Structures are given as C-alpha cells and as structure tokens.
Amino acid sequence: MSKTAGHSVQRKIVMDTNVLYAALRSRFGASFQILGSIWDNETKLLLSHTVLTEYEEILKREAAVLGMTLNEIDQFLDALCTDAELVLIDDFSPLASNDPDDEPFMRLALASRDSFLVTHNRRHFSAIVDIPGIKLLAPKDFLAIIRS
C-alpha cells in the first residue's frame, strides 16, 4: 500500500472481466499482479451485483480453458467477494456505450467515483473517459501506479 503522510492509501478498482480472465489465464502479466494486489489488500475491488454476475457468466463459460471446475469458480468468486466493496447502483440513465456488456462496469465506476476502471479495451469506455473522478487505465498502467 502507498503511504501518504503516515496513512495507508488503498486504491479502489473496477476491474473489467477481460482483466480478471487474463489474470486467471496467465501468472505472468500485469492482470495477475493486480489480482495479487487485491488478495494482499493493497487494492480494493469494487463490485456490483451485475458485475459479479458478468464475472460468473464468463468464467463459467470459459472454465475448461481456465482449467477450473464450476465449483472452483464459485469458490474463487466467493473469495473475491470476501474483501470486495459492494456498490449499490441507483442510476440507470442511458449511457453511450460501444458494448452493452460494458455498461455495468461504467455504472459501477460512475457510482463509486474516485476509482480506477482497469480494462484491456479502453476504447469501449469512451463515454466515461472525460468524467472527473474516473481514471480509465490499462492493467500495466494501473500496476505502475500501485507499484510506485
């Protein structure tokens, strides 16, 4: 964790499914290191019910590729939720999204503010790129911030 004037700073992250998937596919990339920072409580994962459902859908669909059973995916997601911060979404106004599957992540970032939205597909989130309080980053760029 970073230290600021003697206080620990835990960065909050909205993690796109593609980052979580990449972390589970390979132990060698920035995505895996970000997942490690969540397990080590350096980074606080923000979740909504819709984002968690998206994680579950994609990971279970790709279970064989990930070398995991459906039960192992359930256990992994349960563990991920243990220290995550649940954010309730109450604004469902239309968003200019290139991909409707990305809207839950944009809504979560908008509801939580002062967070990082980390994705491998930054162009999908062009509708929120200029909103104050939301920092849209690729995994390697977020990793550089938490390691500095």
Features:
single chain, 7 helices, Rossmann fold, alpha/beta, two-stranded antiparallel sheet, 5-stranded parallel sheet, disordered N terminus, 148 residues
The tally of domains stands at 1
**Shape label:** globular
How many beta-strand runs?
Answer: 7
CATH topology: Rossmann fold
The biggest sheet amounts to: 5 strands, parallel
Strand arrangement in the largest pleated sheet: 5-4-3-6-7
Number of helix segments? 7
CATH superfamily: 5'-nuclease
Q: How much beta, percentage-wise?
A: 15-25%
C-alpha Rg, in Å? 15 Å
Content-based structural category: alpha/beta
Brief description of this entry?
The protein is of the alpha/beta class and 148 residues long.
Description:
By secondary structure, this protein is an alpha/beta fold. The protein has 7 helices and 7 strands. The strands form 2 sheets. Strands 5-4-3-6-7 form a 5-stranded parallel beta sheet, sandwiched between helices. Strands 1-2 form a two-stranded antiparallel sheet. Helix 3 packs antiparallel against helix 5. The radius of gyration is 15 Å and the shape is globular. The termini are close together.
